[in-house]
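Researcher: I'd like a structural prediction for the single chain below. Treat it as a standalone chain; there are no partners to consider.
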Amino acid sequence: MSETIEVKLFELRDKGTFIPLMCVKVPGGRRMTGYDRECWLVRRAGWVESGGVYVMHMTSTQRCHYDAFEWGDRTFFNAHQFIEKNWNELPNGALIDVRHILGETDSPCETEM
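Model: Treating it as a single chain, here is the predicted structure.
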């Protein structure tokens, strides 16, 4: 199956937290279709077999990681793993509620929108 780079925005929520995220799914370089130079750059970056998801904090902190373990906190770690696991089912703009993911609440919180 061939893939291309995808971008989605998410509303990340946790205890007293609202964080806008931009996430980029990068497929493994061998599975990519489209622009040859783009495929080459992905492979040169080491993403030959498996891809991953970059998660970016869209506020002034400008934090970005492709490895969930690099975040070092419960909110981003759990959200990152959830986004990677459920990428295909999550629509652009989805609300990601860490409290709900961890079973602390029965349903996701309401969006601020």
